[in-house]
């Protein structure tokens, strides 16, 4: 129950956000979300009906908007032929008194009767509201579909029934309703509003006063009190819990017990309450908080949701993201490379910059030093069951410290395309980037989410990166000819370097070239880099896009470095001749590197991923270091 208690506390710590519509941008799309009030849910509405304060039809329009609406415990978990109405906004079959007249579906005649009785009870209670009474006075007339047909919102066929499908032979442009609704017109969802001439008035579905009145009204309907396993108090209990956690169409539930015929719990429990007895208030607050956090900052891949949030400060850096995409958004350009000779990839420099970043987050978001951070992963094995795959709670300072260790341990110089432009930065790659370049070129969403799930404990719990992920990244980076674009291979190379650096973090590798390192794999990587740059500089401008011998033989070089190196070195002679006096720089480097080898290490034993670190650092050093005046 710890995750439910965490969500329950999160809701109570963010009561000022309840009912407030927030927005976020995903690409060019703007998404609205909110922390739902108790006893409310969301639904995509297709038709908006506006009535007057006297209960008369005023106007209507076709929409496709997410709408907050009051609901009951039963209506919140309805499915199939379980026709249980919501209290105010709902489908045509519930809110239209003339539904049977225009569809001929006699079996749904009771839907409107149940709906109008439920709405009448609210209107006649002490928790009523003038807007609700106006809507009730209109709906009880039973002319909704007739009014919508006259307004050209809904359309009838030749038998004066709701048209099932729009036929292009009708000679008219396809009406909006057929594009807004997924099925036919009968499945349209209707929301109501009230028109007040010359007045600025809150919409019914966004009126905090109505939210509060309904929550208090529905609370009077809850009778059965029992011990809540989460709060430890005697409160009204509930057996049906909300769905729509990941999105408005999500039917999976965290808590459900509907197997009253198979009795999978037979012999252990008499009923579902013995397993998990949760009060209505706790269930509502916990589920609503979870929906809000998922909408606000959840990372969803193939239905699997990755979350990290603070108890008092929900908006915190996510463990799954990289510096460029997430952490750097708090302090723009903090991690960007400032000059060609910048060696900010060292551990000390990265630690300083990360500490500046955390200070900036604390300042911008007033992070409480005593706050707790929760990390959670959710996924559904079946359409109706949602599982918590991973959950941890940490002190906020511990969370940031573990993020710091991960990002510093995996930091490398990366080069990638952002909005069509190549950019460089120091940092760690995101989980998705690692999955893409370890299992690419186009890994499935299912594979990506599995890799992300396996990497999360590496950040939060300090576990080692699984070796198969590291090896796959090394193998792909060692096969540059398999990439269509050079920058893609560069990214695969830097991702592999990040993982290898983290794997050997006790040896403290960095982007800066280590001229004292005598590790054979590192030295072989340096030799390959010198050969690569030498040939590249000797190529004519017309041949610059051609792969060098070092690149073409890279895959073989990993498996048999000594034998392959002899082949590469022999192929360098024409380019050494072409460079003339300038070739001395490279021949001296070859000699310098060879002198660092232990004679026993100069063999054909396959290379580890360290060779990529030596290759990258040596190549980086050659491309950034200015030539000396005495090289002639």
Note the main attributes of this structure:
alpha+beta; 632 residues; 15 strands; 22 helices; four-stranded mixed beta sheet; elongated; four-stranded antiparallel beta sheet
Write a structural description.
This protein is of the alpha+beta class and 632 residues long. Helices cover 39% and strands 16% of the residues. The chain has helices at 2-12, 92-95, 99-103, 109-123, 130-139, 144-150, 176-180, 208-219, 280-297, 347-365, 396-409, 431-439, 445-460, 467-477, 486-503, 520-538, 549-552, 554-559, 561-570, 573-579, 584-596, 610-624, and strands at 22-26, 29-33, 40-52, 57-70, 90-91, 189-195, 225-227, 234-238, 278-279, 299-301, 304-310, 372-382, 385-395, 412-418, 421-427. The strands form five sheets. A four-stranded mixed sheet has the order 4-3-6-5. Strands 10-11-12-13 form a four-stranded antiparallel sheet, with helices on both faces. β14 (412-418) and β15 form a beta hairpin. α12 crosses α13, α12 (431-439) crosses α14 and α16 packs antiparallel against α21. It is elongated and about 95 Å long.
